[in-house]
Design goal:
Layout (H helix, E strand, L loop, with lengths): L9 H20 L4 H26 L5 H26 L5 H24 L1
Length: 120
């Protein structure tokens, strides 16, 4: 389970396979709604980019400020993007005060991530 020679674990491959199947089903079920299809494709692209930059961040040497810093910024930007994307889909389905709470939680998550990655 630790992975084969190139660093891929069995669970990571299974997880990406499940994500791919779930995304294919979501696109199939919402084929008549271009906005929903675009959301699924954009969320998957952002998630795959996030995984790529997480791997780059983990593999960068601690003293490599340039590469590590760029990867860290990309990780924060992509997680903030995904948080905002999902909040924009969930908040309108809720009563107004709960929708506001969803957005407050999204902003707090993005701000907390910024603090944890860049300030602390």
């Amino acid at each position: 389970m630790d992975g084969d020679g190139d660093g891929r674990s069995v669970m990571a491959v299974v997880g990406l396979g499940v994500l791919g199947c779930n995304s294919a089903v979501a696109v199939y079920r919402s084929w008549g709604d271009p906005a929903s299809v675009g959301f699924v494709v954009a969320a998957d692209a952002a998630l795959l980019l996030l995984l790529h930059f997480l791997r780059r961040f983990e593999r960068a040497r601690p003293r490599d400020d340039g590469g590590r810093g760029r990867a860290k910024a990309a990780v924060w930007a992509l997680t903030t993007l995904l948080t905002a994307m999902f909040a924009s889909r969930v908040a309108p389905m809720m009563p107004p005060h709960v929708g506001l709470a969803v957005w407050v939680a999204a902003v707090a998550t993005a701000g907390g991530g910024f603090w944890a990655l860049f300030i602390h």
